[in-house]
Amino acid sequence: MKNLILLFLLFSTTVAKGQIFTQNSVDGSITLTPKGVKGNTNSGTITNNVALGPNTLGSNTTGNFNTATGYSSLLNNTTGNRNTANGNEALLLNTIGIKNTATGQQALRNNTTGNRNTANGNEAL
Length: 125
What we know:
Blueprint: H1 2-15, E1 29-33, E2 36-40, E3 50-52, E4 67-69, E5 84-86, E6 101-103, E7 118-120
Parallel strand pairs: 1-3, 3-4, 4-5, 5-6, 6-7
Antiparallel strand pairs: 1-2
């Protein structure tokens, strides 16, 4: 029985394919969470964002070219552009700040409007 289950898992992972696309010519955003995948077909205002984890980019309205990985990273971002947040609650309070990079749990957590900051490490800056 174990061999049959193993064979099934091996087969299903090699043939499983997925595709996410948007309904228009504007690039879309994709959010991956433990509850599944959420695609944004866009209204032409939010483009090229990547969010991986629960609550990532949860308040984003018109922010573009953002990357958020980790629980609640860039949660409060609304219009900030070109930010990268890697780690739980990285850039958590950022709202309109642009071109920030935060790597580590709670890195740049309290930044709200600052621009062009880099923080590496747990609770950095």
